[in-house]
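step=encode ok
step=design start
structure_in=
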């Protein structure tokens, strides 16, 4: 039990320390394909430190909800992190049906950010909040059904049990279903983290922004909390995908942790290559993209229930 607890706490430390590095790695991969040097890998840490040293500016139209939203959203992501296993080790908190709690916590973090955007009274941020809510209504069913299919394949009712059972044997008996689940989770990963082809985190075009437009009124430490929460969201979804896609388990905590970190590097590298190779979808095409991910999850669920 002590080993499990230590490994779970080690995952929290790794996530809090390395999560800001993931978007930086994606940027470096994209810069490589564009023939540029790209920003330093430590740039996100410098940006967070710079924001924490600044003061926050609040519009007179905002209420206490706007001030509490960044901390509440980050708290939701930290709690979500405790139920996500990594490196073949159980999560800090594991119980039957915890994948339902994970989906609820991710939805809560989105809801808090939407409320903060609406609290500004800005029609521009309201537009971004509307888009976020519409796309979230499609990505959440895909995530929930995909996790349900993976739970059914593993025969375990919790995320920790599901990841532990995602061995080479499980892949040998349910390859089509698990491939469909991974495809669905990848689409949700790109949507939830505002990546191409759904959104571009580096864009400043007013009519195409989704996530970035909702945080325009945040500044200083509040913006730092939001950016750190976004990095943790990237880590959480990455941990789910890597846990399912890497069935290799050695039984050695350090070796399994190394495999997990290598899988995370491979995932962000793949995202960087993908964003360098394809263009962003038109907004009217994004719902079709997400409906496709729902179809993948539903088909995977049908295959494992038959």
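sequence_out=
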């Amino acid at each position: 039990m002590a080993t499990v607890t230590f490994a779970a706490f080690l995952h929290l430390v790794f996530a809090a320390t390395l999560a800001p590095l993931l978007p930086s790695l994606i940027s470096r991969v994209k810069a490589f394909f564009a023939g540029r040097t790209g920003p330093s890998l430590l740039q996100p840490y410098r940006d967070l430190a710079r924001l924490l040293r600044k003061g926050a500016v609040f519009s007179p139209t905002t209420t206490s909800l706007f001030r509490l939203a960044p901390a509440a959203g980050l708290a939701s992501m930290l709690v979500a992190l405790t139920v996500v296993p990594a490196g073949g080790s159980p999560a800090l908190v594991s119980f039957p049906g915890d994948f339902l709690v994970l989906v609820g916590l991710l939805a809560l973090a989105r809801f808090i950010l939407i409320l903060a955007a609406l609290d500004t009274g800005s029609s521009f941020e309201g537009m971004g909040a509307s888009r976020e809510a519409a796309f979230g209504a499609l990505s959440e069913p895909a995530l929930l059904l995909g996790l349900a299919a993976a739970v059914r394949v593993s025969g375990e009712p919790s995320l920790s049990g599901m990841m532990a059972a995602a061995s080479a044997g499980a892949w040998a008996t349910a390859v089509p279903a698990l491939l469909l689940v991974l495809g669905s989770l990848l689409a949700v990963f790109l949507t939830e983290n505002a990546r191409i082809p759904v959104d571009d985190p580096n864009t400043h075009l007013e009519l195409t922004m989704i996530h970035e437009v909702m945080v325009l009124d945040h500044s200083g430490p509040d913006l730092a909390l939001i950016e750190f929460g976004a990095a943790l969201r990237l880590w959480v979804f990455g941990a789910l995908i890597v846990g399912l896609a890497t069935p290799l388990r050695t039984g050695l905590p350090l070796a399994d942790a190394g495999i997990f970190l290598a899988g995370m590097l491979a995932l962000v590298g793949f995202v960087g290559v993908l964003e360098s190779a394809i263009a962003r979808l038109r907004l009217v095409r994004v719902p079709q993209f997400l409906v496709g991910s729902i179809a993948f999850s539903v088909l995977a669920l049908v295959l494992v229930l038959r």
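step=design ok
step=annotate ok -> The mean pLDDT is 90.
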